[in-house]
Amino acid sequence: MIFKPIIDFFLFSNLFVAFSFSCLAFQTFLILGSRVDFYLILFVFCSSFFIYSFHRWLKILKTFENADLPGHLAWIKTHKKHMIMIFMLSLPLIIFSSFNLSLNHVIALVPLGIISLGYTIPVIREGSKNIGLREIPGIKIFLIAFVISCVTV
Known about the structure:
Number of strands: 2
Distance between the termini: 38 Å
Order of helices and strands: HHHHHHEEH
Strand content: under 5%
Structural class: mainly alpha
Helix content: over 70%
Largest sheet: 2 strands, antiparallel
């Protein structure tokens, strides 16, 4: 199938997730009838891509080199150069767009960014090891829903 590599790239590279979240934010502007803030849409797209890619990279790094990886992680590992290029492009775009956001947007987005990073990075001490917020039983889906709701509405 000729489209399979394109579809795999769109799905496994996290561009699909970033595109979906930015579309939700765009839709909110349309529903409210307000002026679309394209810097905010760009910020949502790039930061979603960045945090999801960051999460996947950490998962790959924690997995042994010879271990069997699930499909999406194996794809990312195989297409490492493409992913690093897109990943590194997203960071300057996040910085650029954040400097063009209003102070109210920045104040609202900083705690959500902290939650998003805490989701991936082990920040909570549990016994003898550190865990990320996603490893707290029952909280994962609520964290994701809360952050996505706040960012896109």
